[in-house]
Structures are given as C-alpha cells and as structure tokens.
From TrEMBL:
Keywords: 4Fe-4S, Iron, Iron-sulfur, Metal-binding, S-adenosyl-L-methionine. This is Radical SAM domain protein. The keyword Ligase does not apply. It comes from Solidesulfovibrio fructosivorans JJ]. Its cofactor is [4Fe-4S] cluster. SUPFAM superfamilies: Radical SAM enzymes. It comes from the Bacteria. Residues 56-276 form the Radical SAM core domain. Transmembrane segments: none annotated. The keyword S-adenosyl-L-methionine applies. One of its GO terms (molecular function) is metal ion binding. One of its GO terms (biological process) is heme biosynthetic process.
Length: 353
C-alpha cells in the first residue's frame, strides 16, 4: 500500500476518500491511454518488478518544473528561498519551445505531467501555453499554485488552457495564520482567484480543472481547519486535503500539529515504501537538469544529465541511472553510492539487523 499511497497522494486519507482518489486516477488513466502508452506502461511495471537496470521503457509520468522563481517565501521551501550558491541551480524558467522539444521526445509515453516544482508556475504566461501544448497531445496536466496573482483574466485562461488538476496551496484562512507559513502571501486574494477559477469553469461548462485544495497542517493553523472546510464547500472546491507537511527535524514545536506530531523516523529500507521513480517518473528542472525525484533539486552535481542537451532516452539509461537502479535492487552495493543522490536516500539504506 505504501508505494500506492505515495504515488497517488492518498497517505493519511480515510477509506472513502482514498477510494474517490483512486477512482479519479483510474478515470484519468483511461482518458489518456493509447496503445503506445499502455504498452510502455506494462513494460515499465515489468522492469520495476524485475528490478532491471537498463530499461526498454520510458517514464509514463513526469514532473516538469517550469520555473524555480516564486512570488512568496513559504517557510522551509527551497531552503527559505535563499540565493543560489556556486554549484547550485540558478533561478530561471523553461521556454515553451524547450517544453515542446521535451514533448516531442517523451510525450507519446506520458499519461500525466505535474507541471510544477519549486516555483510559482502562474508567474509566467508560457506555463499556460505549455498546458495547452500537453493537453492537445492528450496528456493530463496538473499544476500547484498559490494563486497570489493580480491578473483578472488569469482564472479564465487557466480554465481555457485545458488544465486537468489545479492544486491550490493555502495553509490558513486568516491573513495572520496563513502568513506565518506563506510569507508575503494574501489568502484573501488567493481565495478570490480560486472563486474566479470556479466561476470561469461554470461559465465555460467545463469539468476541468479538478480543484484540489492542499492545506499543510501545523500547530498554528489547525484551528482554522473547520473554517477552511466550510469555505471549500461554499466555493465548490472538489476536494480539500489536510496533509502532513515536511519540516526539518529541528523545526520549532509550533510547526507540528496534534494531527501530525513530530516523529522520529526509523529511516531504513524495511520501513520505507520503496521507490518507483527510477522506473515510472523523473523530475525535469527548468534548465533541463534531470534528477530522479524531487530530493535535492538545487545541487547541480545531483543531476543525472540534461534532457534539453542530450536525448531523453540516453539520459534515462546512462551510467548514473544504471547505478541508481542497481543500488535500489541491492542496497548492499555500497560501491555504487558515491556520486548518486540515491546513495543518500533512506530507501536504499539497509535494514538494521
Ligand atoms: C513548492 S510548491 C510549488 C508550487 C506552488 N508555488 C505552490 O505553492 O503550490 C509545491 C507543493 O509543495 C507544497 N508544500 C509547500 N511547503 C510544504 C511543506 N513544508 N511540506 C510539504 N509540502 C509543502 C505546496 O502546497 C505545493 O503543493
Ligand atoms: S508558494 Fe510554493 S514555491 Fe512559493 S514559497 Fe510557497 S511553497 Fe514555495
């Protein structure tokens, strides 16, 4: 269940909520299926089960960061959004042409693109063009946004882009509470934009985007959960999720809620849900740097290659990918650890014994 939970973001959800999420993903899977995608999907899953190191399949879901620039400074996000140091990824954005090139390379295999990373996608107009490009190829697109924008036409354009899922990040309802987490943000503006997206959806008679309010629960915002539920219902939000955020272990007590108290994890491979990223997915940074997952997107030495400079297929099976898959299959291969980010991941740590 662990791998399914992390793939579908159902961790912590109740049984009926989990069933609803599963149903929605199954429907999206069928909506975007083609013979080529299904065949690739079967090969990718076979490769994963057989723990192969060289794959005859491509990823079937991608996380593509359009930009790592943001208008807010949420606590603990991207190292509190400090300026990049030497050897780290600069701030920047992907162009629509570069995105088109990526689609030419892998679009035929993709059921879904999560078009966001560590920045705010709707800061720049090319994101809407990218959504349209992917949607026209029958790829489902999901975007996560803080919706802190002062552009009256943005809600209509979001709906017109064909976006399938809009994750609305808002971790508090009142200005005071929300701002402790989302520094520089304005929840009133964000909720007004959310209402406008829902209005635009209704006006267009559109089923999409599915609106998924994501609320990271802390000790100082949990008292607003009921108000958030109420607002979500009144606005016509499709789903609201109160999730367990990630904070550093030394974060002050107020960041941990009674729902999700501070935990001391036993990070060993036995307790971990495993990893499917190396077979199913990957994270493309705005500059084309390909990393296996969203762990450590800043350090340029973590990149497995650059898919704006090298054919995607070549990076996907290069020496770093082969070493990472071999280590995942056999965590006792300590010789493979140096130089690959997976060597530092709890998932490849041997069980204590
Ligand atoms: C880094 S944000 C980038 C996209 C966009 N700027 C936004 O905030 O939605 C990506 C996702 O991380 C979530 N997020 C932010 N801080 C988090 C935390 N401490 N733990 C877990 N998720 C977090 C946001 O809610 C969002 O869905
Ligand atoms: S709005 Fe999103 S990207 Fe920006 S600081 Fe907050 S979580 Fe990070």
């Amino acid at each position: 269940m662990g791998l399914l939970d992390s793939a579908l973001a159902t961790k912590g959800a109740g049984a009926s909520e989990r069933l609803k999420i599963l149903k929605r993903h199954a429907q999206a899977f069928l909506r975007h299926a083609t013979a080529k995608r299904l065949w690739n999907f079967c090969k990718a899953e076979r490769n994963r089960l057989q723990k192969r190191t060289v794959l005859d399949s491509m990823p079937y879901i991608l996380k593509i960061e359009t930009t790592n620039i943001c208008n807010l400074r949420c606590a603990y996000c991207y190292d509190d959004r400090r300026a990049p140091a030497p050897g780290e990824r600069p701030f920047g954005r992907m162009s629509a042409d570069q995105f088109r090139g990526l689609l030419d390379a892998v679009g035929d295999y993709l059921f879904k693109i999560n078009l966001y990373g560590f920045g705010e996608p709707f800061l720049f107009p090319e994101t809407l063009e990218m959504i349209r490009l992917a949607t026209d190829r029958n790829i489902g697109v999901g975007v996560s946004s803080n919706l802190n924008h002062r552009d009256p036409d943005l809600p209509r354009r979001i709906v017109a882009s064909g976006l399938e899922v809009l994750i609305f990040s808002c971790h508090g309802v009142s200005q005071e509470t929300s701002n402790r987490f989302m520094r520089g943000g304005n929840p009133e503006l964000a909720l007004e934009n959310l209402r406008a997206v829902i209005d635009a959806k209704r006006a267009a008679g559109s089923q999409t985007p599915f609106i998924d309010w994501q609320y990271c629960v802390t000790g100082f915002n949990e008292h607003e959960i009921e108000t958030a539920k109420d607002k979500a219902k009144k606005l016509g939000v499709d789903q609201v999720r109160f999730i367990k955020p990630f904070f550093p272990a030394d974060a002050p007590d107020e960041w941990f809620s009674s729902r999700f108290p501070r935990q001391t994890f036993s990070h060993d491979a036995e307790a971990s849900p495993g990893c499917s990223w190396l077979y199913r997915s990957a994270y493309v940074n705005w500059d084309g740097g390909l990393i296996p997952c969203c762990r450590d997107p800043r350090d340029l030495s973590v990149d497995f290659g650059n898919v704006l400079e090298t054919p995607f297929r070549d990076v996907w099976n290069n020496a770093k990918y082969q070493a990472a898959r071999a280590l995942l299959a056999d965590p006792s291969r300590n010789d493979l650890r140096p130089g690959i980010v997976c060597g530092r991941c709890p998932v490849t740590r041997l069980p204590r014994g």
